[in-house]
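Duplicate of #3305? Posting structure anyway:
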């Protein structure tokens, strides 16, 4: 805790470090949904995620009645406040090292935002080497975003509505060694722009690979308006954390989630 707080304060000097409080204020109201807001939902195949899989995979935000779901609601509120203050609608989830809990956080945050009636959410799996978003929803996609980026599939063929209202997934499939080239390709650049600009009430959440293992995350960050850093307690050294923070120095880091903490409340948010 102290280690992380010190590292964060040092690297982001001037930025206030705030503990997540249960009484987080409600986000300012989002613009009303546009009539076409559900086009993405309508244009995607519905493959209903099983509640037991969501439970087993810890997508706790899919149900309302748990302490963990409350924590993601608090995170959602803080994230939506930060995004709406700057009129931002795209957010990347990053971490220094592997297995920090990025995909789990992305799945829960996206689900929690979708449960807020003011927003639709598109959760995009940009871990092109090890895509895992689909497994958190118990799905086996026939096409992934890489198929779209390489011209093998239409975008609509890649979209899946997992049966959670207002949430659509753009999953990954397979493993792609040319991932960083794909992430900076003109097709990806225009896709990220189109996804951000099309609907004013849509939040686009990108699940990225770790910052320190490949250049994928850092290559993609210029295409996104904000990022959230997930740090797993005991999962990164201070040096790794500092390195990761240096890598996102030019990105808009809106906060940090301390995941899997030994303290009583298991997720904390610093913004
Ligand atoms: N707070 C937590 N409590 C229990 N298990 C957790 C927690 N956070 C993550 N896990 C588990 O740890 C594993 C890694 O989580 P996750 O896939 O979200 O990490 P990641 O940062 O996306 O990893 P990668 O860098 O490989 O993409 C998963 O099995 C996940 O269920
Ligand atoms: Mg992941």
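Output from current build:
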């Amino acid at each position: 805790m102290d280690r992380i707080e010190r590292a964060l304060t040092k690297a982001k000097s001037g930025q206030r470090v705030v503990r997540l409080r249960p009484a987080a204020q409600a986000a300012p109201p989002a613009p009303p949904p546009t009539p076409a807001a559900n086009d993405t939902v309508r244009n995607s195949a519905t493959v209903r995620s099983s509640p037991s899989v969501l439970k087993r995979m810890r997508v706790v935000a899919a149900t309302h009645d748990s302490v963990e779901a409350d924590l993601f609601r608090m995170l959602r509120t803080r994230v939506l406040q930060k995004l709406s203050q700057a009129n931002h609608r795209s957010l990347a989830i990053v971490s220094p090292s592997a297995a920090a809990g990025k995909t789990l956080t992305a799945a829960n945050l996206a689900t929690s935002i979708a449960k807020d009636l003011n927003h639709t959410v598109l959760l995009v799996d940009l871990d092109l080497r090890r895509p895992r978003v689909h497994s958190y929803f118990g799905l086996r996609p026939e096409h992934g975003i890489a198929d779209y980026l390489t011209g093998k599939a239409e975008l609509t063929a890649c979209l899946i509505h997992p049966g959670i209202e207002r949430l659509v997934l753009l999953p990954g499939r397979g493993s792609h060694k040319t991932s960083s080239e794909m992430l900076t390709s003109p097709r990806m650049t225009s896709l990220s722009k189109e996804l951000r600009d099309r609907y004013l009430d849509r939040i686009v959440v990108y699940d990225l690979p770790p910052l320190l293992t490949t250049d994928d995350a850092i290559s993609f960050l210029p295409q996104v308006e904000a990022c959230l850093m997930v740090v797993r307690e005991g999962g990164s050294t201070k040096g790794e954390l500092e390195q990761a923070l240096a890598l996102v120095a030019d990105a808009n880091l809106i906060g940090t989630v301390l995941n899997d903490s030994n303290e009583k409340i298991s997720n904390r948010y610093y913004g």
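Confirmed duplicate; merging threads. The radius of gyration is 17 Å. Residues 24 and 74 are 6 Å apart (CA to CA).
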